[in-house]
User: Fold Cation:proton antiporter from Psychroflexus maritimus.
Amino acid sequence: MNLHDYLYYIILPILSLSSLVVFIRFLIGPGIVDRVVALDLVITIGIGIIAIYSIINDKPTFLDIATILALIAFLGTVAFAFYLEKRNKKDE
Assistant:
């Protein structure tokens, strides 16, 4: 079993299944925090899929896209944490 078989038959199905489970969590999450964490995890899984696609097709330019997505996800999480902090101060 070489690297491409491992990526095709083991890693991609696991990532697909995990993205499905996380997306379900995103839909039924009881709170906004659960939904934001699920959205961040969906973006992280997407970054993994992009990285695998880049490895399989030998196109390293897609890793730049994955890096930009990681930066956007990080900034979104920081912005949400800032929003929660401001909301908690307003409630007090």
User: Anything to note?
Assistant: Residues 3-82 form one domain. The mean pLDDT is 91.
